[in-house]
Design a protein that fits this description.
The protein is of the alpha/beta class. The protein is built from 11 helices and 30 strands. The strands form 7 sheets. Strands 11, 12, 13, 14, 15, 21, 22, 23 and 26 form a 9-stranded mixed beta sheet that branches. β14 and β15 form a beta hairpin. α1 packs antiparallel against α3 and α8 runs antiparallel to α9. It is globular, with a radius of gyration of 22 Å.
Amino acid sequence: MKLYNIELPEIFYNPAPALLYEHAVLFEKQTRITETGALVAFSGEKTGRSPTDKRIVKENTTQADIDWGDVNVALERESFLQNKQTALEYLNSRPRVYVMDCFAGWDVKNRIKVRVICSRPYHALFMHNMLITPTASELENFGTPDYTIINAGSTQASTTVKGIATTTSICLDFELKEMVILGTDYAGEMKKGVFTIMNYILPKKDILTMHCSVNEGDNKDVSIFCGLSGTGKTTLSADPNRKLIGDDEHYWTEEGLFNIEGGCYAKCDNLSQETEPEIYSAIRFGALLENVVLDEKTRKVDYSDLSITQNTRASYKIEAIANAKIPCRAPHAKNMIFLTADAYGVFPPISKLTIEQAMYFFVNGYTAKVAGTEMGIKEPKATFSACYGAPFMVWHPQIYATLLAKKLKSAGCSVWLVNTGWTGGKFGEGHRISLKHTRAILDSIHSGALEKTPLENIEAFGLSIPKNVENVPTEILNPRKTWKNPSQYDETYRQLKNLFDENNKKFAK
């Protein structure tokens, strides 16, 4: 097997999780095994993504397609090759490397073959969990990968390389079909790199890619949950009464919905068996815990201890969720739910959107970045992220929005806006909407009850809200009525609306 110019006595091809456990404990400081059998690893200085360090090579075959700017920052081919050389030299200096061959995408027609080359067993286990594991016969015939990720995150990028601003660099070349990671050991960079690749190649086939989770009811009613990290996609889609299709990345074809991944990457700050039993139970042998704190004697994890980072994570195969649907595919969606953690306390806990409103909120992608999801975020901060995932979108947002409108109309899919953020005031004054109430709202959506519930219009964004929802206090449905001073709510709404208007200027043309 050709592996660039890496020549080491120990190259492990598609090692079993048990071997990766052994190597992680033997060769990496601080790595531990929890009382439930999960592996605990540490990513070092970087405990979240570094989106400002992402680069895409600007070359003739793709440059006309890409929406260049602050998100998709251009890099010269020569700079990419210098980074690649740095990565390969580092890997060649290691005592051993790991090669994982996996699939992204649950339908054979649109999946891609991904090869990951890395020096940390923790990274190999992560990608084993996050992508789709080939069968023995598929591995035998795997052949040349469609894309290769070269992860040398434990060594720094050089700022003398043109276009590289810091010692962290995540760069992607669509023509060479390679991704190189330097200066960060945060495993999520690999996962989101694969998502970025799929976000480029699938829209070329008239396929919509989405930053979302998906689940399915007993009557084959399918719900899509769109939202940024921290808005509740993983938590809310892990419903004991519904089958999980996936928790983060999907695509919508003429045949239905497909998961891109083979696993889940759940936030586990303050995780408990009571509040999130499905995720809690999935953290056993084969699962990977990132940057958590555990008791050295009992090996019991303290999920409330966020001293390392607020962005503690659990990675596990989707099969670890008891009610996961394998293969991870579903019919066309009946409901699409936009999740927003509104730090201003303006949005109602539930509102029904028209197709036009759906396009408006999808393109704007308003939410609050949750502390820890990205480096430097210490508290919730209002932000706009096109398509609820701008850092991973390659085409102009209008491309994805047009595909979404087409899918919604074709499937007759209802669209809902669910606020998992604040009520009774903005962040620091109000309080977070109860998870119990959010789950009750989703139950009413899935049962079809909300489709039959009378609606009333409110001034804020012209939204339509239900007059009542079973098991949800009526007084919280209209956000203006939850504020002690309604006039202060009105002023805050105007401030937020101005932010939307300002953000929309970049889409005006």
